[in-house]
């Protein structure tokens, strides 16, 4: 299994603090040492850093941790391989282009016997269930909407319908972004926190590092951090109920939909 | 205008030496300071480093120069913007997936009024003529061959036909790779060298750095380096005639085709 980290903000923000804790889980404080990756949107462009090696000892991860890249949408992943050998082609996040926008996807879970019909428009390069699911999602979106992107609410409803089709096949926690918004599926395990004024201090669980957000933010900044497990030990993280799909935009949850029967908490 | 750097090898090789010279041209020894990027294939996977800032002062470029990533196919680019503002989405190389393989593309030149019909299968994210040409090339390849990749020789013939269609629109020097081979179009300016046993020393033009390839190679290694302008001042680079398309594989040119009337030298 793997761990996910996402960030969605209303102004471009660096993820150095959160990534410092996450990086440690890639082989130091936790077992996810089969590769790591992080993708940043900067406007419509993306930068992706990927390595099929542990993040805790990677010079590239060290650079990412120290080099403030400002982004409104970030998706990161540390890998404990289930399907697909350890290799760059099986390292998350994955990227494709649809409707003239890059799409970024990372998955934590395990889909069993998931071999959907792929028509060739988006084909997996590696051997993971995750990339297969991503390709199928984009194929189905293009089939529904042709060559023009729908409105965001319509898009969210479609991603919900497609997630329902896949989520019966196994654990399917994922983060997906087109640079405007970030969709997060809590199949079994995902938490989030929104940081906004009045800002406070925070202390990482996985490294003895603290930050006072008052010193590094402006009053109107708003940042949502989404992670498999909370990254700090002194902030009120919200556990996202198993079986919920979330639409984050401008640093906060906009809408939540159930992906399996059971009570679902709406965002406040 | 911009500069291109490519590498095609028979065994995974690092590009640190060549990149050191190339990096200096991004704002130090030359004027290409509007962004830089480099893409490495590792098996079927890729890593891309991109920045919309000068390579000569970039901490990420510094990491790339010092961190030996072993690859059989590499494409790098330093940018002097012609079409499209300075921004990550307009920074080369570009990447798309076709036939379950990543394709990497970088362009040096300027295409005038090149606005081909795009059917939505590959759409530009940025505003460059370069990404438009890349999307059109891949669209046409998929239209010709459907969802299955053709044999390499058939592929080369098709890329030749498509290059002929574009090259009347302006300068169109490019490097293109699917991880197996590297296609290089010398529209106006491109040179290459093949390094193989017996290996010699080489000295960079742009930095006072030398390497003795005897010390860092095995007897069967073969590496082709392709660049807008020769990177070393003591090696016999071959000028690729204007109007030639080259297919490199396993560290050497395999075939050359003319892309405009005039005498064409075949590789030895």
Briefly say what this structure is.
With 268 residues, the first copy, chain A, is of the alpha+beta class. The first copy, chain A, has helices spanning 16-24, 59-66, 129-145, 152-167; strands at residues 3-13, 36-42, 45-51, 71-78, 94-98, 101-111, 170-177, 182-186, 191-196, 201-203, 210-212, 222-227, 238-239, 244-249, 252-258.
Blueprint of the fold:
2 copies of one chain form a homodimer.
Chain A: E1 3-13, H1 16-24, E2 36-42, E3 45-51, H2 59-66, E4 71-78, E5 94-98, E6 101-111, H3 129-145, H4 152-167, E7 170-177, E8 182-186, E9 191-196, E10 201-203, E11 210-212, E12 222-227, E13 238-239, E14 244-249, E15 252-258
Antiparallel strand pairs in A: 1-4, 1-12, 2-3, 2-4, 5-6, 6-7, 7-8, 8-14, 9-12, 9-13, 10-11, 14-15
Features:
homodimer; alpha+beta; Glutamine Phosphoribosylpyrophosphate, subunit 1, domain 1; 6-stranded antiparallel β-sheet; globular
Walk me through the structure.
- The first copy, chain A, is an alpha+beta fold.
- Chain A is built from 4 helices and 15 strands.
- In chain A, strand 7 (170-177) and strand 8 (182-186) form a beta hairpin.
- In chain A, 51% of the residues are buried.
- Chain A binds chain B through residues 42-52, 59-60, 63, 67, 87-91, 95-102, 119-126, 142, 146-147, and chain B through 42-52, 59-60, 63, 67, 87-91, 95-102, 119-126, 142, 146-147.
